[in-house]
Amino acid sequence: MSDAGWTPQKLTDSLARGEVYPLYFLFGDETFLIDESLDLLEKTAVGDGLRDFNLNTFYGGEAEASQIRDAAETLPMMAQVRVVVVKDAQDLNEKDWDMLMPLIDEPVGTTALVCIANKIDKRKKYIKRFIEKGVIVEFKRPFDNQIPDWIKTLAKKHDIKLAAGAVELFHQLVGSNLQDINAELTKLRQYLGDRKTASNEDVLQAVSRVRLDSVFDLTDAIGRNDRARALDCLVNLLDNGQSEVGVLALISRHVRILKLVTDGMKEGLSGQRLSSRAGVSPYFLKSYIDQARSWTERKIERTFQALLDTDRALKSSPVASHIWLENFIVQTCQ
Description:
By secondary structure, the chain is an alpha/beta fold.
């Protein structure tokens, strides 16, 4: 089997048809989708009743490569396929891969060897051979504008229908991390009980506001031109693992909303019509209106240019990324 261009959806469709191949390499920074795909692969290959006999899980950097190879070469018990999972495969060293290369060069037909890593180096010999012989799939984090559709998709899996406006509200409260979104939908499902439709009020009552209390503190401070508070919020976000590129994307979204609110107000829009134009929940509209009143058209244009310059610097400058974000805040909050 050779196909270097599989998408997560193609993998899902293949497994839905009951197809299981000897070699898989799943990698990327979207761990939730990797975990979901791995679970589906395991269920497709060995089901639930035979997992104890036909599923082996190892961790790179901890397990011996010889153990992984022995497991992969063991025949399945009362099943067609044995699944051998190697998590944190990026931690395997060159000697480990040398030991495993025979499994890649000549895959065992009765075993699905599944390697999982956060990143790969396609220059490496074993990755090149994996691409030639197996299925390799990259799982990228969705862009912020794709998250509403993901919320709807995951809500459907939880048998939840989100009322008008509730998707946007959920997004603003929870953020763009699919693991967090799924966890909060689980809580919402429990809160709803026998009901299937969740209103805005249900979302506000059941969903955690961690994202609102962190990211929105930063964007709110920038929107209100509060430089000291914005710099303090930036430090807290970066200290808690938020990426510089992710922070810039959230700021860009906030400024785009301020522009939409400003333009809508000039057209005489208000209430639900203005909320729909800006793409925000009515619960947060007043805050955006208050901020937009102090953002002139010239200030918005200058800020968009500063965002563009900062984005280029983050991707190309050798200077520490947080310096560029701090510089952006100093320029913008005047």
